[in-house]
Design brief:
It is built from 1 helix and no strands. 98% of the residues lie in helices and 0% in strands. With 90 residues, it is mostly helical.
Amino acid sequence: MASGGAADAQARFGHSVKGLLTEKVTSCGTDVIALTKQVLKGSRSAELLGQAARNMVMQEDAILHSEDSLRKMAIITTHLQYQQEAIQKK
């Protein structure tokens, strides 16, 4: 009977170890899924930052072009004012 009790204890220990291993595997699987989601999220964030940087560069070029156009219009306006004054004096 003593060997029967030892075999029973070993069986319970085996089930206990299997249960713990199952929990650990499940936990690791959950951690891997969470890590994968985080990596994908980080990848998407980098993609969005890159797009934002490209958009900012395009806007900066447009602003610089507009600034140049305004300077040219100011010069033209000054020349037209001089011409108007010259015409009015005649």
